[in-house]
Amino acid sequence: MNITGICLSCFQNTGGLNPCPHCGADAAHIQVSPQHLTPGTILNQNYLIGKALGQGGFGITYIGWDLNAWRIVAVKEYYPAGLVTRERGLFVAPIDDDAKTKLKKGVNLFFKEALILGNFSLHPNIVNVLHFFRQNNTAYIVMEYINGKSMKDYLQARGGSISFTEAMQILCPIMLALDDLHHTGLLHRDISPDNIYLTIDGHAKLLDFGAARFSIGEETQNAASVIKPGYAPLEQYPGSGTEQGSWTDVYAMGATFYRALAGKLPAAAPDRAMGRELTGLRELGVNIPEGADKAIQHALSMKPEDRYVSMRSFEEDIEHAAADLKKSFDFSSSQVQVPQQISGQNRMLQGMPVLPQSPQLHYQGTYQGQMQPYQKSFPVYPQPQFVLSPVYQEPPVQVVQPPEPGFFEWTFRHFKKKLKKAFRKVKSRK
Question: What superfamily in CATH does domain 27-144 come from?
């Protein structure tokens, strides 16, 4: 295939220019790691591989081009760091016999996870899996390419923290999506703002399931963990000997809430185990309902048995705390302004245009996959101290006027009215 003139960083036509006029990538000096697939490789006779978007402990994600559907995709390759090497820029090879056994088991688990995630392809808050296959002694998952920004970048753009209202609007749908995943026996195990993306059409999507493992059997206990200090509970650290489960993701989600509201992470789990205390959000001066502060601290409990067992229970307590606070406000006498609902969509807000109307904003899930459908509604916590503009502007509404009738159409309508009037007169005389 001739890919001359195609930028392997954004898959736009460069028109023979270098660097790329669209993304600025320099095609003459592409930095390729020995661990990565060579840009220009074609997988499964259908996916043209471009640059690597990122690499974690369990895999590498590339930007790709679907040669059949003619669209940009993201391709995730199972590549467990420390166990394998890359041969001839293509094949994944284990470093020894022990690594060979672990690689085979890991590929099988990776493939099982892809099968389960494929059942969530209609879920609005989980990255859409398009295809998965085995090749090059490993496995690949082809996913939709998310056009937007990570929650991590969004927080940085907002000065490090956001309001409780915004945090709910972003994270509550993700919590419900995780609850659906947990019912299949799958754990994410790497929840953080890095792995939550805000799309340009106003949805939050959970992605990067490279650290995901099944909570049933020995797979979870024997698999290497992804450790993100501040987000990872103590049971994810080597040698803890504590079982992982849905409560493991609950801790990471509590830390994500904490980071989004406080602008900093809670202390790492090992430091807390040595006696460092967790400071409550209200103690830090965060404007948050007391019940929500308690719910987040409950989620961040050190012992798994002291945390929420399910993500849905955590989400419901956050929701109820905001609802109780809403009832305590006298909206008839105050000048509190609340976010405006836009087209029934769950918008990623920097602060919506406000209207002095109902203090209720509804989120309705539209998941139609294998799990039972959900319908959730949560109140918005009023933020009377500021009013900001939306991150993603709605396109202006274009009112299409009907065309003026032509001469023959106008004549037909005119005589039709005359005939009807004449018939009414004749009928009235009888």
Answer: Phosphorylase Kinase; domain 1 (3.30.200.20)
